[in-house]
Amino acid sequence: MTIRGSLMNEPRYRDGAGQAEEELVMAALAALQEKTAIKGHLVELEPVKPGSYVPDACIDLAHENGTSRYLVECKSLVDRRGQLDLVRRQLESVGAQGLLVAPHVSRTLAEHCKAIGLQFIDTCGNAYLRAPGLFILISGEKDDNRRPAFDAPRGLTNPAGLRVVFALLSRPELVNAPFKDIAVHAGVSLGTAYNALEDLERRGYLINKGKAGRRKLLERRRLVDEWMINFPTTLRTKLNGRRFSAPDPNWWQSFHSDAGFAWGAEVAAAKMTGYLKPVTQTLYVEATDRELLIKTLAKQYRIKPDLNGEIEVLEKFWHWQPESADNVAPPLLVYSELLAMLDPRTQETAEIIKERFIETTFDKT
């Protein structure tokens, strides 16, 4: 959501979500002023190109050595480093000084913000600011008095919800499909599919007018980001992964199988873009075919169990046929895996996949 800014004493709200974000910024600025005497106010956001990342707000901070302007990304909950890494990339993409605003940033996450150069303020008085003539570092202030209005909904914090959202983002036509079809594609129960869509509507990601063909996903870029952040720790860890190593690092180039499998991560990225030389190999396979696949690999390529091996076999959690003959996983999954590796080599490829294979679907539905 974007706040088309106003002065602090002349608040203007675009809608319910915009009001919540504006109140969050106001509370954080008040806490900052109480701790440091630095005064801040909202200013008008400049227009951005269609399809570009849109900050939530723009603020000026007035301090004894001048005024510093920041583009703001608001988060109602900050609880992991990967989330901070994403915010930093988003703010860097606009080419201006960026600032995270949240209800509370823990001491550990504040240290990570400092390490990656992400400036922030929160409603408890914690802050990391570094600009010409300005340096502030406050951490460890607790959120005992946090306002209930800033509490975030649970969102994508369970594996089943992530499965449903993955299906909707990967197969946009499912948004208007019957609940039973969504459930089958996501591999969840009918009730889970219903609850997941209800949660999306409650959080402003879905319009549902109650008639067939009347649902529509909103804020899909933000939903992609939320899915990408939560997948590695919430769903991927539940996929019964097993690791192996092989004598020949190029074994994957000649591998074929009748088992229901798909390449993920680096091999998928190489097949999709031709841009990456895989160092690791990730395979997603139907649970019923997993043992057959592993036996085939052991026979053909002499793979052996290895906790630190470069080969990982996981259970396939989506239930539709691949869209290409290369047996690659859906682009959203490949994108998320590449970013989770925290490797500049894979992150660059991830951005290519996002541009070519993910964002191109946003204008089709």
From TrEMBL:
Taxonomic classification: Bacteria, Pseudomonadati, Pseudomonadota, Betaproteobacteria, Burkholderiales
InterPro entries from the UniProt entry: AbiEi_2
Pfam families, per the entry: AbiEi_2
Name listed for the protein in its UniProt record: Helix-turn-helix domain-containing protein
Highest taxon listed in the record's lineage: Bacteria
Protein's organism: Pseudoduganella albidiflava
